[in-house]
């Protein structure tokens, strides 16, 4: 055990195009500012104002702790394996093999399952982005030209995604992510003008609790909004100084602090301003045929459009680095990756053509994947990595109890949130995404 402490994985990483701290912060902000933020006001309609703020803060802190737990567990696996970087798949496989017998027999399957959930999570995010961008542009263009079928917009957005998605390196996306962040924040600044005028008395809203039956949808929206596990791990693996990523003043904590404050203010005032008429995306509540509102909508929708390559990067990275045959010619591998990338865009576009309602879709992606990736598996990994020495008689077992609570909470959100989101999706099948969310 002593020699494993000498080995430092950070000193043995081989990163072709490392990412600076600024690039990491920009990319982190890009992966968490988007559709989830715009859906939060309706989430506060479901949860109520005070309850919504409480759940948002607690959920964010739990997800942040889960992310720290995951990264530290992956670092410990790398240290024991004496490699520069162990992927999520490899870390789950290794850690489970150190745990009790019931974990060891599922170690390999656990690694594959993590890859599957990661791919499903980011595939679902990309479908959400296509639907959101298509709905957003339709809402804008319908005001000034004429109404076209939403499926036309979905097809156009899918085709326009192809050239951006052919950018293969994460570091090459930094400029696009910076542009996306700038457009998003400028769009939100313009939008705040409409949020602060015409505020109704707060007593006319739901000041404490909302609809208990919709709380699971709110949790799913929060999960979707706060955490993008695959991108967060990809950024850490590509950093020039990964030791600056976690810690009290690390890139991860700073970005989440900014995001949490922005989310709380935006969610509260968005619901306070529009009340029961709040739409699935608050950009659809902006006044029609007003220059400031149109500019705000265009900036925000365009910013989300530019997030597609970052989210889809995770799926392609898993396929190419974990399951593609690396023994072939580099040019052949490049052509294979291009074909996979184009096929991925076409598949997400085809899924976006289904008559899915945006809010249940966002909640489903968040409730299905984030509890597993951000809470349950990291807790299991830490339990297994420190088994049995940390759990012998006479040793404090607070880590074990803390991890068990994370697993219980994550399991509850996963089961209830996924069930409610699927139920809501079936009930809202075919309803319009444009305008106030239909709760009938």
Note the topology:
Elements (H helix, E strand, L loop, with lengths): L1 H5 L14 H12 L2 H13 L1 H33 L6 H11 L2 H4 L2 H38 L5 H16 L8 H22 L19 H12 L2 H10 L12 H24 L16 H15 L2 H16 L6 H23 L5 H28 L12 H30 L13
Q: Give the overall shape, derived from the CA principal axes.
A: globular
Strand residue content: under 5%
Fraction of residues in helix: over 70%
Mean pLDDT: 86
Q: Total number of helical segments?
A: 17
Output the helix-strand order: HHHHHHHHHHHHHHHHH
Spatial gap, N to C terminus = 60 Å
Sketch the major β-sheet: none
* Class derived from helix and strand content: mainly alpha
The strand count comes to 0
Taking pLDDT < 50 over at least 5 consecutive residues as the criterion, the unreliable ranges are none
Give an overview in words.
This protein is mostly helical. Helix content is 71%, strand content 0%. It is built from 17 helices and no strands. It has helices at residues 2-6, 21-32, 35-47, 49-81, 88-98, 101-104, 107-144, 150-165, 174-195, 215-226, 229-238, 251-274, 291-305, 308-323, 330-352, 358-385, 398-427. The model has no long low-confidence stretch (mean pLDDT 86).
Keywords:
single chain, about 450 residues, mainly alpha, 17 helices
Give the structure's gist in a few sentences:
By secondary structure, the chain is an all-alpha fold. The chain is 71% helix and 0% strand.
């Amino acid at each position: 055990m002593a020699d494993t402490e000498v080995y430092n994985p950070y000193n043995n990483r081989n990163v072709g195009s490392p990412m600076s701290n600024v690039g990491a912060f920009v990319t982190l902000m890009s992966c968490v500012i988007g559709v989830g933020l715009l859906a939060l006001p309706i989430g506060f309609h479901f949860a109520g104002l005070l309850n919504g703020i409480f759940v948002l803060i607690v959920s964010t802190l739990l997800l942040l702790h889960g992310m720290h737990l995951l990264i530290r567990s992956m670092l410990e696996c790398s240290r024991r394996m004496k490699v520069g970087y162990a992927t999520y798949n490899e870390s789950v496989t290794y850690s489970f093999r150190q745990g009790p017998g019931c974990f060891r027999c599922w170690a390999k399957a656990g690694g594959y399952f993590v890859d599957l959930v990661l791919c499903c999570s980011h595939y679902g995010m990309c479908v959400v982005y296509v639907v959101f961008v298509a709905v957003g542009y339709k809402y804008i263009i319908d005001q000034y030209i004429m109404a076209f079928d939403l499926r036309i917009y979905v097809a156009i957005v899918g085709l326009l995604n192809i050239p951006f998605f052919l950018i293969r390196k994460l570091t090459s996306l930094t400029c696009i992510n910076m542009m996306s962040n700038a457009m998003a924040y400028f769009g939100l600044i313009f939008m705040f003008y409409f949020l602060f005028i015409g505020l109704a008395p707060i007593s006319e809203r739901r000041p404490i609790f909302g609809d208990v039956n919709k709380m699971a949808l709110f949790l799913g929206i929060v999960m979707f909004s706060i955490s993008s596990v695959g991108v967060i791990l990809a950024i850490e693996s590509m950093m020039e100084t990964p030791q600056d990523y976690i810690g009290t003043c690390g890139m991860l904590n700073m970005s989440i602090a900014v995001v949490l404050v922005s989310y709380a203010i935006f969610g509260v005032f968005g619901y306070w301003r529009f009340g029961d008429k709040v739409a699935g995306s608050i950009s659809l509540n902006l006044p029609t045929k007003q220059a400031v509102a149109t500019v705000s909508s265009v900036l925000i929708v365009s910013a989300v459009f530019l997030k597609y390559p970052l989210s889809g990067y995770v799926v392609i990275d898993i396929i190419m680095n974990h399951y593609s045959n690396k023994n072939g010619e580099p040019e052949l591998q490049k052509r294979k990756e291009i074909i996979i990338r184009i096929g991925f865009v076409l598949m997400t576009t085809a899924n976006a053509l289904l008559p899915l309602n945006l809010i249940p879709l966002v909640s489903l992606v968040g409730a299905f994947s984030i509890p597993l990736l951000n809470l349950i598996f990291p807790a299991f990994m830490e339990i297994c990595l420190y088994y049995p020495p940390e759990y012998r008689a006479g040793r404090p077992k607070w880590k074990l109890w803390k991890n068990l609570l994370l697993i219980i909470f994550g399991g509850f959100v996963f089961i209830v949130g996924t069930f409610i989101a699927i139920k809501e999706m079936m009930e809202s099948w075919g309803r319009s995404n444009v305008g106030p969310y239909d709760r009938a």
